[in-house]
Fold this sequence. Notes:
By secondary structure, the chain is an all-alpha fold.
Amino acid sequence: MTRARISQLADKYMSHDMITLHTELSDFPEGRISLLYALLSHQPAAAQHKELLSVVTSLVQMGLDTHDLVDNDSAPARSGMKAMRAQQLKVLAGDYFSSRFYQLLSQAGQIDMVRQLSEAVCDINRSKMTLYAKMIQLKLSAEEYVQHAAEIKSGLFLSFTGVMGGLYERVWPELIERFSRCEVLLHELTRIQKLSKLESSWGVWHILQDGTEEDRRTLRDRREDQGIIKGLLNKYAVSEKLAGLLRQSAAQLQALAQRLQSDKLLRELQPLIEPFVQAAGPQPATALKELG
């Protein structure tokens, strides 16, 4: 089953003309869904349900991610009717995707999976509240930011730990957490390259943690000034630091995949890991010299 096939199946349950025409949706979580599908394929007890479980998990994740696109800070009176309608549809779209998840699992008699995924959603929402509270109070280190973000991304998928057997059950939690961490770091690297929403990026938390007092004060006072932030990100070589973290996490992810002791599965997972390896780039020559 290809990544495109998973997305195609999920789209069958997410497709709605009003949502498609009037609002933006989050990106489909292809990487994590493909990882889940690959692991479920090697579980005798779960293999027959791997397609259903992958689709419903993607629906729940899309519901959560679409709700995150709602801009609670925008003023409806100023944003206009079209923008306000798009915001309302994001909320409705997230709810719609969740309703399809309940429907599909209930029809298949997978009531226990409904409970597990629902509990995971509650845990994820609590993690989001903790993260947002720390962000508002500016009490967040760069590493805590990555940890919280990876925890939020991996939350639903940890529900399947009990479905795994033997070695897979032991490796799965660390595997999905490390994969999610790579996704977070890749996203942060992409944000810098596209200069997109830098005010809440990893680089800002890194500078607030390790920057000079003057630079920290500048960030606190002018966090919405993209030009100021861009200059500071360059000053502190944030792209290079993120690439190094991504390179490290991708290597750890590859090592975890090898622990599964299946050449067939490793071949299936390699295309999922490769984008992280490519984005991180080669090890700098200075670092290689130090290692030697």
